[in-house]
Amino acid sequence: MKKASMLAGVIVFVAASALIVCAQTQVFVPGNASGLFGGAADALVPLVPALTLTGPGTITVTYVSGTVTDGAAGEIGPGGTVWNIGTNQAPLQESQSIAGGKIKNFNALIGVFVPAARVSHAGFTPVDGTKDATRVGIMPGRLFFIGQGKTFEAKEPGTLFLGINDYAVNDNGGGFNVEVTAQ
Amino acid sequence: MTGTKVALVLLVFIATVTLAAPAQTQVFVSGQTNGGFGAPIDMTVPYVPAAVVTGPATITITYINGTVIDAGGVDTGPDGTFWNCGTAQSPLEESRGVAGGKISDLDALIGVFVPAARANHPKFTAIDGTKDATHVGIPPGDLFFVGEAKTIVVNEAGTLFLGINDWWMGDNSGGFNVELTVQ
Q1: How many domains does chain A have?
Q2: Is 2.60.120.430 the CATH number for B23-182?
Q3: ipTM attached to this prediction
Q4: Residue A5 counted as domain residue
Q5: pTM here?
Q6: Chain B nearest CA to A127, separation (Å)
Q7: Which of B34, B130, B138 to mutate to test the interface with A (most CBs of A within 10 A)?
Q8: Which residues are A65's β-sheet partners?
Q9: Domain ranges, residue A29
Q10: Residue A48 to residues A1, A62, A110, A126, A155: CA-CA distances in angstroms?
């Protein structure tokens, strides 16, 4: 085998190995990280960047520990709790363009995968892009429920951000420790 | 041919002619019709229902006449005008999750097609669904520029709504007369 061919083979092997390496990280998602999503939002706390992919991948999000303490609803795990929000709007409701009434995932762990083209855009902040709080933000329609855990396929490079399904977060404390892996 | 058969053939003929004939209507879109989109907003004026289709259809939107008068000497047609939003957000910016800076379509004629399942919901209002102003609203990501004219093909029953690409409406007046054709 010529040297050039051997070198090419080694490069292909290394590249393939890099693709199947499993990345793992842990992040803390504060109880007030709403990303300004929802109606009547009272604090601008960006979502937490959890993991960045440089290409297609499978991301698994797993709740590890912690609770969110809400001034009104008490102590809540990652699945959230039932709550009547009146005429307000939770982030996951905003993702469906609905508002008000009883929800079952108040203060739940939520996430959003944002393509690299948007994340790397000048002026990007991981907050609600439908408000005038940032030059470039996140579209609410992309938010999803995570709860205890979730695995999803990302078809392109980008960053997974995590947050809390609440809108009035000034009276929130605590948060969730979360493990994130990518393959 | 019996009398019954003749009647049946006539009915089929009439039905076919009815289906083939394009439905045409005209609406006026007030210069204050922001649908509550954009930020910051000073009022919420619901979008104008322009055409209802009961199944797949082709809708053609054609500007007829009229202008929107706005602050700063703006007197614009349906394509809108250049404007520096500063840090504010126009409805079409909101549809992309961005805000601020120079835009080329202030006060332009814009539209959105809302599927029947949403438009016919008893709690639906034709305004921004990402704010807590309605139980069921319109997702901003579906907004599109119309300008002088636009033809859209829809794959399901629903309603086409029209509005103006501005967020601050207290200083707006005038509006656009628009013709709709459904085939």
Answers
A1: 1
A2: yes
A3: 0.82
A4: no
A5: 0.85
A6: 10
A7: B130
A8: A177
A9: 23-182
A10: 50, 15, 11, 8, 21
